[in-house]
User: Which sequence fits this backbone?
């Protein structure tokens, strides 16, 4: 990308953009999974990304902390370009928390150890301080009494709340959620969403891949709809749900809202 | 108003499904075939056990100084008694064997200290892996603090077997971990080096490696430059078993879900941090049975050092059975060797099961 382009992008999006996608393209082998993604997210914004499976929504989110590499275009996170520079990647990953569909807690460590691992080893925080902070976040997700158990002894909903607390322990500036409720029993979805709503209300910058449209309506600043690797439509929830512009969006909404 | 839901109380299981009688019925007599197999097994045991007990215990001679003392019809255990010291220490001088015993006691004490909660485990591990071998080496070889020098060619018996086994195990494990990580690595050169090493070593029998180590290497080395045969053999055994270890550990690494790697990456852990803190603890735990399998194999493979003229436990026993004043004691000798090897290997197997149970954190993997 040329300097003039960069300057123009900055002008358009204002200085408060914390994540910027500029003409981002990605391929898995021959499969073109992300096509010309241009999108920017402001500090404190809550973005919900939805779309059919295979539409590239997870891939796009995972490009933000470079769990996936893009091959063309630029991604700026907090002003730092995500490229092969390991230093940049590690610096950004410190500031970006991530919650996965399958929790991905470390089964050989206790809940408390899961939470203190990154603060101790990445942030070089003293153990005692890390544990105090971990207990603070565990209380926030209402699970402090389970601190010494192992992940396998907790229910799915509890594990996902631990995963959120683990992400928060890095005191991130951005939280990414990759289908956080898709692997949960119906009765446990609410307890996880409650934590996420609370987090959103506190002003955390959030990018959330989810099909929980109720959540999108309550907390999202913008809803992004993707299909076939492209952003079809991005709008504020009110407009997005009541007045979708594209017929593809209309079809998607009719599929998921009327079943 | 809604009806209140009360779960029904839990009841104990039916009486005939628990207890000894139920166990016998379910496991030994559940079907005609099962009944037949049970009876058949008892019959075989009845055929085997009495003669063995009679030969080994009832009519056996347990003490004596020569073959002439073995007057009973059964086993001549006096043979083991007379040669016991040689079986344990090889040709190590009798008056110096306390050094081996001292080193063994020291090791037992050090390892036993792990149970004490207040001890710093890191320092203790360093002590065992780094400091202890140096002390043990000088105890065995002598030459310092007025200890008499004992040539490694005199080392033998169970002492040599244990030495080869323990050093092989302790050295091949970290090497195996590195080779496995290297083979999984995305760096092409490190990866190729590891693959070539593993595949080459695995394609060659241990005997060949031992033979190379003891006979070929000295031929290639320049005149006057030579190092100890025992050391060469130890390096050979270590490299051999590291290659197998690497493949076992690679199996464990592959069984760890991608999500674990991603979660570690997403936190900003470096490669080595995520390997040491997240991936290896899980991968190694998964493959404990395979690792112990390799250890047991290595321990038994040490008997092959007879090919390069070293007399380990089996070598000493074989040599003793050829003693013309003790002819006809081959069975006793091999029975004793089998018993000692069984004890060591069974011990390792039980210990590994204990570790597995201890590391079980009651979860399914996700």
Assistant:
């Amino acid at each position: 990308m040329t300097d003039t382009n960069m300057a123009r992008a900055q002008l358009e999006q204002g200085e408060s953009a914390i994540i910027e996608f500029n003409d981002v393209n990605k391929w898995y082998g021959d499969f073109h999974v992300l096509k010309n993604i241009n999108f920017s997210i402001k500090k404190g914004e809550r973005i919900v990304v939805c779309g059919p499976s295979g539409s590239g929504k997870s891939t796009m989110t995972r490009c933000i902390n470079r769990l996936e590499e893009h091959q063309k275009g630029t991604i700026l996170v907090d002003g730092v370009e995500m490229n092969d520079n390991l230093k940049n990647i590690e610096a950004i990953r410190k500031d970006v928390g991530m919650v996965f569909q399958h929790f991905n807690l470390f089964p050989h460590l206790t809940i408390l150890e899961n939470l203190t691992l990154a603060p101790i080893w990445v942030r070089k925080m003293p153990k005692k301080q890390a544990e105090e902070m971990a207990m603070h976040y565990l209380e926030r997700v209402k699970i402090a009494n389970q601190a010494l158990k192992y992940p396998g002894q907790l229910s799915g909903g509890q594990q996902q709340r631990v995963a959120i607390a683990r992400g928060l322990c890095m005191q991130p500036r951005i939280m990414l959620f990759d289908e956080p409720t898709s692997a949960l029993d119906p009765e446990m979805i609410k307890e996880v969403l409650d934590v996420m709503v609370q987090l959103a209300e506190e002003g955390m910058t959030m990018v959330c891949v989810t099909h929980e449209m109720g959540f999108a309506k309550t907390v999202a600043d913008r809803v992004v709809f993707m299909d076939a690797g492209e952003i079809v439509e991005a709008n504020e929830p009110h407009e997005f749900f009541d007045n979708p512009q594209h017929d593809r969006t209309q079809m998607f909404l009719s599929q998921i809202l009327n079943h | 108003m809604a009806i209140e839901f009360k779960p029904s109380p839990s009841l104990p299981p039916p009486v005939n499904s628990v207890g000894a009688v139920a166990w016998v019925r379910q496991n030994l007599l559940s079907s005609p075939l099962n009944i037949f197999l049970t009876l058949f097994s008892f019959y075989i045991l009845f055929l085997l056990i009495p003669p063995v007990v009679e030969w080994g215990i009832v009519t056996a001679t347990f003490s004596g100084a020569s073959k002439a003392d073995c007057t009973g019809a059964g086993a001549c255990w006096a043979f083991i008694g007379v040669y016991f010291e040689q079986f344990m220490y090889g040709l190590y001088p009798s008056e110096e064997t306390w050094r081996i015993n001292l080193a063994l006691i020291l090791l037992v004490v050090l390892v036993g200290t792990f149970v004490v909660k207040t001890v710093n485990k890191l320092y203790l591990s360093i002590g065992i892996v780094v400091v202890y071998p140096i002390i043990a080496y000088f105890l065995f070889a002598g030459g310092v603090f007025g200890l008499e020098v004992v040539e490694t060619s005199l080392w033998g018996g169970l002492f040599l077997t244990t030495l080869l086994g323990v050093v092989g195990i302790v050295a091949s494990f970290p090497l195996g971990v590195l080779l496995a990580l290297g083979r999984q690595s995305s760096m092409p050169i490190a990866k190729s080096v590891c693959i070539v090493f593993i595949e080459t070593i695995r394609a060659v029998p241990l005997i060949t490696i031992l033979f190379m180590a003891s006979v070929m290497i000295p031929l290639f080395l320049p005149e006057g430059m030579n190092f100890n045969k025992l050391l060469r053999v130890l390096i050979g055994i270590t490299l051999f078993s590291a290659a197998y270890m690497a493949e076992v550990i690679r199996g464990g690494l592959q069984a760890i879900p991608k999500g674990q790697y991603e979660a570690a990456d997403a936190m900003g852990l470096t490669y080595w941090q995520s390997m040491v803190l997240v991936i290896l603890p899980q991968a190694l735990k998964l493959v404990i049975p395979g690792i112990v399998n390799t250890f047991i194999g290595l321990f038994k493979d040490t008997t092959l050092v007879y090919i390069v003229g070293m007399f380990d436990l089996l070598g000493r026993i074989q040599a003793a059975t050829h003693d013309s004043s003790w002819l006809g004691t081959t069975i006793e000798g091999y029975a004793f060797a089998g018993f000692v090897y069984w004890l060591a290997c069974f011990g390792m197997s039980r210990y590994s099961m204990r570790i597995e149970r201890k590391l079980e954190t009651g979860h399914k993997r996700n």
